[in-house]
Each structure stands twice: as structure tokens, then as C-alpha cells.
Amino acid sequence: MRIAVFGTGIVGRTLAAKLDSLGHDVTVGTRDPQATLARGGEDAYGPWQRAHPAIGLAPFADAAAGADLVVNATSGAGALAALGAADLAGRIVLDVANPLDFSHGFPPRLDPVNDDSLGERIQRAHPDARVVKALNTVNCAVMVDPSRVPGRHDLFVAGNDAEAKQTVVALLGTLGWPADSVRDLGDITGARATEMYLPLWLRLMSTFGTADFNIRVTGL
Amino acid sequence: MRIAVFGTGIVGRTLAAKLDSLGHDVTVGTRDPQATLARGGEDAYGPWQRAHPAIGLAPFADAAAGADLVVNATSGAGALAALGAADLAGRIVLDVANPLDFSHGFPPRLDPVNDDSLGERIQRAHPDARVVKALNTVNCAVMVDPSRVPGRHDLFVAGNDAEAKQTVVALLGTLGWPADSVRDLGDITGARATEMYLPLWLRLMSTFGTADFNIRVTGL
User: Fold this and answer.
1) Cβ within 8 Å of residue B50, ≥6 positions away
2) Using a CB cutoff of 8 Å and minimum separation of 24, what contacts does A40-44 make?
3) Superfamily of domain B2-208
4) Nearest to A129 by CA among A183, A185, A64
5) What chain A residue is nearest to B100 in terms of C-alpha separation?
6) pTM (whole model) above 0.90
7) Looking at the complex, does the CB of residue B218 fall below 8 Å from at least one CB of chain A?
8) For the Pyrroline-5-carboxylate reductase catalytic N-terminal domain, which residue ranges apply (chains A, B) (predicted)?
9) pLDDT tens across A41-77, in order?
């Protein structure tokens, strides 16, 4: 599959590397490739790119052009601007981000919350795209390697397009998530539910000092 | 233990009946006992009271007087007014409610949300009380009978007073929740995390058509 991964942070790179290793044609999308490559420090992109020579880097619009699937792995706050730069008509948009607002410190607030969600905002901004919310309830290392967490544990999907959800569930299967561990929450308004789970995830992470955990829904 | 259960709805009655069956001295607190007894229809209190003759019914302040533990099983919106009628100094307040606002329809909004919670509001209104948030992440039938959901599954506690949390964890043990299935989220600000889980619980409930489910945290 031709896949564009929007976001050059740890989430985007982790997903891009795994999808590349699975044989997909992966391009990372960024606002300004030259600025991304010039970035230094711990978050430097250049060394990572040299370790993954098959993964392209392109402006958002170019990365999305011709992609079958666009992964939104931006910081959440930057998602609408990043996706707004691209033509997403007909494409599957796999939104793995959470609308975390760190401007008041840690733990972050969610914005939007309650009666709207990032997934819905993306769908409204791109009515011809087929947005699927998934993977936003686990750390990126767990996203691509669910065996980091012992036993059976679950993901959630939400989206208006059943075929797009099927494609995403199949892709999640190749990441190691059995189809029966992916709970379908219905249309894209289900994104509110999984985004609002984040405060519990963050509290567990900070209390127990690890991101290698998840939840299993029992009884359903 | 002498226990006051605030709230005459299904949650309060389910908890009161179970605690009574375990040998506790239980009084249900309500704003106006005569009005509660006069209530007709499906939610009538009289027939239930006749089936549980050992369970008292009293105004909030009288129910709390002398109680070792006060359970807040009100609707959430009415919690502060109900608890405000009682002297809670030194008492353990087990807050099982969620601040659900149905004024915009279903699903309800949470109010407060993000940087405050019902648990914290109760603690701030009663600085001398020892508030413990727990049980608000499962249906009341599951609260008192976790075996309705197969396998291991978890609860959360949050509160500022370690001894009060220990007392609550021991009480939960008598309801059928093993101590190692109760995850301690630290101080009362952890109530934000479990209250904000409610939208996911509600979405799962409405999608799968049952309230007999829960989550298990895996990897911690």
C-alpha cells in the first residue's frame, strides 16, 4: 500500500518504520522537509532517515498525493493545519493522534472534549476523506508491537466508512493486533470516547512509570 | 460498619442492599424521606424498602450522623447539595458517582471535565472528609457482583488519605474485588481520569447493548 505518515516525531517515525518493514511504500509528510532535516538534538530526523533509506520525506501535500492511506501522527494541535495542506478526497485517514493541550502543564487538557473530538474535526474539515480513529489509546511502541504487553488486550476503531474501517482492521492485523481485539465503536463520534480515555492512560502511565500497558475489555 | 448511602436510585439501592447483606448497619440518605416514600412508578422506593426492612431511610444529615463511611451514590449533579447537608468531618466518603450532564441529551457531557472532577469538588467542599473515588467505572450490578463479568477485571481508587483508601479497598474485597484488581491512582485528582473514562464506558454500553462488562489493565 502507498502510505503517507504525517508527523516526524516519535509516533510518526515508529509507525513509518514498521509500515516500511512490512513492505509498504511509505512517505513521511512534514511542513518543510528542509527544516525537518536541519533539526538537531535528540529529535534529529537526519540520522533516523539514513537508517531508513526507503522512507521518503515530502511536504504534506506531496506525501499524500497518490497515497492510499494517510496516517495522522501529528501532535494533535497541528493536525488540522497539516491535513489541510493535502487533498484527502477518497483517501483513508487513519487518525492516531489525541488533541492534547499542554499549555497549562501536565497532565494536558483535551481540546476539544465532551461533544466533539479531533477525529470528528478532521472528518468535518475533509468530508470526502474516510477518517478512521484508531491506535490513539496506546503508546507508539505498543502500536507496532502489541506483544510488549502480555496477554490479550484491545484497540478501538471508529469511523463513518465501513470499508475504510475494514482496511484499517486488516492493517492493524499486520501490526500484530488480532481482528477480535479491535472493538468497533461505530461512527466517527466514537472518537470522543477513545480520546477521553487519554487522561486515564496518562494517569496510569505516570503512576506506574511505564507506557507498556493497555486495557482489555472483558465481558463483551 | 455504620454506612450511610446517599441516593435512592438504582445505584444507591443496589449498594445499600449488598452492604446490608454483608452485615453492615446501613441507612439510606435522602433529601426528604416522606417524598421518597411517596414516589410511585417503576422507581418506587416503598416496595424496595419493605423488602429490605433493616435498611433505614433518613434525611442526609441524620443518615450521616455517626456513620463511619458515607457512600455518594447520588446522580452526580445533586452530589454537592446532598453532601452539603451533612457533617462529614473525619468520615470516609466513598464517591461512586459521575458528573453526567444529560441536559444536552445522550450521550451526556461531563461537567466538570479536564482540570477538575466531582471527586475533587467534594473534597474541596469538605476539607475534613476523607474522599475516596472508586466504583464509578462499572455498572452498579457489577459493583456488587464482579463475577457478572468473566475473568479478571479492574477497579481504580483515588484519594488523599491512604488509610481511607485501605478501608475502601478492604470493603471492595468483601464485594468480590480482590485487592490486586484495585489500581491506586494516587491522590483525589485521579478522579479526573476515571470520570473521563465514562464516555468510553457509555459508548461500549450503547454499542454492545449490555452493562455487564469492564476493563482489565494489562501490563501493570
Assistant:
1) none
2) A43/A9
3) NAD(P)-binding Rossmann-like Domain (3.40.50.720)
4) A64
5) A114
6) yes
7) yes
8) 2-99
9) 988 999 999 999 999 999 999 999 989 999 999 998 8
> Of B52, B77, B81, B71, nearest to B164 (Cα)?
B71
A86 Cβ contact list (under 8 Å, min separation 6): A4, A6, A29, A60, A61, A63, A64, A65, A70
Peptide bond into B99 cis (omega under 30): no
Please judge whether B199 and A219 are an interchain contact, meaning their C-beta atoms are less than 8 angstroms apart: no
Closest Cα of chain B to A210: distance in Å? Answer: 8
DSSP A108: P
Point out the residue among A114, A194, A218 whose CB comes nearest to the CB of B214.
A218
Give the Å distances, CA to CA, from B82 to A1, A174, B28, B191: 58, 53, 12, 19
Q: Which helix (H) or strand (E) holds A19?
A: helix A10-21
Question: What is the rounded CA–CA span in Å between residue A72 and residue A44?
Answer: 20
Cell reading at B135: 466504583
C-alpha cell at A84: 489541510
Report the C-alpha gap between B11 and B16 in whole angstroms.
8
- Average pLDDT rounded to a whole number, residues B113-120: 98
Question: Domain residues of chain B, as ranges?
Answer: 2-208
Per-residue pLDDT tens over the stretch B55-73: 999 999 999 998 999 999 9
* Rounded CA Rg of chain A: 16
Relative to beta strand B130-134, strand B92-95 is: parallel
